[in-house]
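agent> Task received from the user: take the single chain below, predict its 3D structure, and emit structure tokens. No templates, no multimer pairing.
agent> Plan: (1) validate residues, (2) run structure prediction, (3) serialize to tokens, (4) report one or two observations.
agent> Step 1 OK, no nonstandard residues flagged.
tool_call: predict_structure(input=
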Amino acid sequence: MSELAGVRRETITTWASRHSDFPKARSSGGREYLHLPSVLAWLESRPIPVKSLQDGESEGATYADRIRRVLRERRPRERPARLADDGPAGRRLTELYGPLADRVRGSGPQGAYLYFLLALVTVQASDRRAWAIVRDLVAEADQQQRSAEDLLKDLARIVDRVLRDQGQMPGAVAAFEKLRPEASEDLAYVVRLCEGLGQEAFWFLLDRFEEWTQPDSAEFFTPRAVVSLMADTLCVDGEGPARCFDPHVRGGEGLAAAAGRRPGLSVVGESPSATSLQLAGMNLAFHGVEPDLRECTATPWDRPDRHGRKFDFVITNPPFNQKASIPRDRTGQDWPFGPPPARSDNYAWPQYIHSSLKPGGRAAVVMPNRAAVSDDEKERAIRGKMIEQGAVESVIWLPRGLFPSTPVAVTIWILTASSRTRGDVLLIDARKMGRKDGKRRRLSPDEWGGIVECHSRWKRGEADFAGALIGGGTAVSVSRETIRRSEDSLDPSDYAEPVIELSAPDALVPYPTDALGAVRRRADDADRVAASLVVRERAAGSGELPDGWCRVPLAELCDIQTGPTYRRLKAAPRSPDGAPIIVRGHLRDRRVVMADPDRMDREAARRFGRFMLEPDDILCVRTGATGPLALVGPEHAGCLFDSGLTRIRRSSSVDLDPWYLLAFLSLPATQNWIGNRAATATAIDSIGGKRLGHLLVTLPPLGEQQRIGAALRAMDDQIVAHRDLAEAAERTRAALATNLVAGPLAVG
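)
tool_result: status=success, residues=748
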């Protein structure tokens, strides 16, 4: 109450001791609480002192006004999902999230209110007799005017009994005690609104629970599109009895989706969180599934019986990217593909899941993007063995923004324990699929259905498997040997060539005559050179590329060096006459343009020898939004480059024109390829030198390279000349305007 009113607890105590009409405290669960409606009525006549007014409050405002404002601000601001606007069920949900929610919740947490709703929906859908008792209690409360606290206790006891009868963990008594309902009539109205809500409403309530409570990665729920995709891909084949396991059950959404695809499927779930097990139990009961749910440790692979139980399917979204505070020695354990790093569980989960499969079993696992391309020595070794031994069937790359509480993009790994595995791996790129819905991105049923169809066609051996994708996705089947040569990368972009679209150049229009002298003449010269370019159609070759052309990985053509670490660069001493340090902002129009750069002391710069630039080096941005590039000219030889850049230097043994390479790296398709590689980080996008080296460069003969490079260099010269002309014109205009307005000059 003191937090809502914006006063100290001692103030509340003073009000209660000095004023005999101040509402009396009520006891619940061994603690005393003030009844919010009674306190609001008392505070209506108590104005806030002028010196204590907060922003937005006017003189004469009361403490009751302040409390109501705070409660309104705590209400979620986002509109409910589409369901809340459609039909009778939608109208009920709208009421459940309106002012009624504040009256029932009071000062209690939002999660407790949503647990209350989920519990009521579960009871009315799974136990008719218990729901009949609930209805009688509500009717009795209306007639006898029972207190809200007593009614809430009775409802909690009924819910916990139903949960126990279903073999689930009870938790309603503890959760309901956190609510502060104003009146029993409000509780009765919530019960009536929850009656008849179907499965769509349960999913909606589960989504809202996550949005309101903002859980961490170990607790948030898996979006319906993701679990539907996992379940459809996993349970597409087979009949008869089967067992499905989720070692980190969250809200039970994965097991519920799997059970809905395969009748008679028995499900087993584990979690270190009692709350997650309670929610999962209610979810599965609501869907008519009797689960076997158990509490376990956060590291189930440490259990002595970890190899005892085997399952036909595993479907799970384990917590990932979590660093252990204390490194764990994993060398003494039995890991099928090798001990994972001491501080990360990213490669402990898939190994534990794979070892939980029966022979021929399959698993669908949510994994972080980084795990598919990690350069960590241990993680790469594990990934390589999993690929080599056929444990990885396919990897699906999903778009960012699917999860409401985190922007991190994820992948779905389909694992198999079959001894009859294919020699290739299916890699599906769905990163551009889905549509924006507020802050989230959502996959439509047609989109995830297209991914499932693509996977099914690939498994059946159909050549046109990639044609099943809808919404801009792509797919590629890659041999294990090719993956091994690409450093065991499971990113489909490593095996997809950039698509280059050719179009006729726009007409070149000379800049009008003006009085800017040398700058104008340079622009005119650049226009004449560009206008003299002749573009013709090339005679058709015998293959996909013109005769004599080829595609070569960038790493085979160039030495690629990423910038020094930020800490090392920052610690180096500076000097006014030292070596200039080129940063992202100096890359302009594919040239290096520096003005007053930071300079490193010459003696210190010698220790950064491998970061010194030579003429014809190419610089590109590697962190943040990728894009700018520049060719280093002779005037910048000996400069250094900073942490956010990568230097590309052509090998002396290959025929490669630097201006042609700059043109290829500047292509929109190439930039899109680089952007996809960089979009695997969890915070700031970044691309390393090894990954950049996978880029396939289209390589004509040297003479053709030089002609292409010279033509595009002429266009670059024209762009730079006109930009300089525009800037010179802007400066001239500013000077002219000043002199015309001030009086020294006149027009005409």
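agent> Step 4: summary for the user.
Residues 702-742 form the longest helix (41 residues).
agent> Done.
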